[in-house]
Amino acid sequence: MPVQTTNVDEKPDATQTSSGEALAVVVLAGGLGTRMRSRTPKELHPLAGRPLISYVLDAVQALPAVQRILVTSPAKVELVACVPPGWEIVYQAEPLGTGHALAQALPHLRPEVSWVLLVFGDHPLLTAPDLERLCAAAQAQRPLAAVLTTVLSDPAAYGRIQRDEQGRVIGVVEAREDTTAYAGPVEVVSGATLYQRQWLEEALPQVPRSPSGEYYHTSLVGLAAATAHPGEPVITVVAPPETALGVNDRIDLARAEAVLRDRIVQAHQRAGVTVVDPATTWIEPEVEIEPDARIEPFTILRGRTRIASGACVGPHAVVRDSVIGPESVVVASVIEESVVGARVHVGPYSHLRPGTVVEDGVHIGNFAELKNARIGRETRIGHVSYIGDADLGERVNIGAGTVTCNFDGVAKHRTVVEDEAFIGSDTMLVAPVRVGRGARTGAGSVVTKDVAPGATVVGVPARPIELRRARRDGRTGA
């Protein structure tokens, strides 16, 4: 059958391994992932905020490869959007197993390639250091095949390494074909295998078809072991147990998430961040946290969030794609696509929506909602207020229940409150409107017109208090 290929970029990486022998990496992502029971391709399911396959691609991207190939199904073309520049895409038209998928990549290998590293796109816990150790061992010992393995007390559905009485690898037996009762830990295949390219091209056509109708790449291990070769034809490099975790269903996805979450939290802890309860803390990979920040229980930090030194976030906080400045405190609140300055207090139960910028020393209290707003230094928004599409100056006081009425049914309008203004409780600011420096509004006012600096307005609609007094005095005859 014809093999389709797409170049993502015309200028791929042209580095080599330390020995000068060129390495190609082939990532297999052709399976349909039916056990996920999802319309979304398995490799695109989110894992700690990123597509599952992105972790595999990152690990591979760190290797000195001259060629990187992703083998996928024509039914999963969405994967191409995740692939970095420089990769080649090869389509496996029929899902006939991992050996068949690898065979689709072979015609596209560049002439200079000496080693071919096979990696699975659904093994997100593989790391670049593990793959580098595998490559280094192969470069040193020159086997036909080098297998990354791990040791599990329960081999589950993983292929099991078979050895002879002298301890030499003689093959891999798939779980469905293994009837052995194991009394102890079992060495299993762990998601990556490195092959000598010349031998691979000769051996791959010899891979037998399994009873299920598929061609397993693990059959190559037995073929290599049976090949006359100086030294060991097959070697193994043992990696931590989590590297074997391939994601086949939602249970596996949750397990991978837990491992990845632990890795991320521990890295921050080693860098000087206090994470009070790692078991209830979710931190995505791109989050940056400076030393001496404190993350309280039941907190979720997502996207490109940055937490400065001395800040305390949580408990029960959600922060996405936002900046939290030094010495600021966020308690039981949600912050999205916003910037919070230094020494700011937010919450509990407040919501900063996209486009909000909070300058230093601000207090945002209970049940406040801010959207596309700029809040000046030392301003206080105490309780139960909505500040949307607004600019508040410095040292402004926002009374409880204040609302910027920013939408007239057709368009959004902006509210401006200048420095040191005092907005009384339950004030409605009907945009577009400006409250001048040092001005005041009475409780329950509905402000529909600009308020002059220093003026006080009250009532519905709000008018300067002097005018109201004059009208009152006129009615009483004073």
Please give a structural write-up:
By secondary structure, the chain is of the alpha/beta class. It folds into two domains: 4-244, Alpha-Beta Complex (Spore Coat Polysaccharide Biosynthesis Protein SpsA, Chain A); 250-476, UDP N-Acetylglucosamine Acyltransferase, domain 1 (3 Solenoid), CATH 2.160.10. The chain is 17% helix and 31% strand. It is built from seven helices and 43 strands. Strands 13-16-19-22-25-28-31-34-37-40-42-43 form a twelve-stranded mixed beta sheet. The longest helix has 21 residues, at 250-270. The chain is elongated and about 115 Å long. The termini are far apart. Mean pLDDT is 91; it is low at 1-19.
Give a short synopsis of this structure.
By secondary structure, the chain is α/β, with parallel strands linked by helices. The protein has 7 helices and 43 strands.
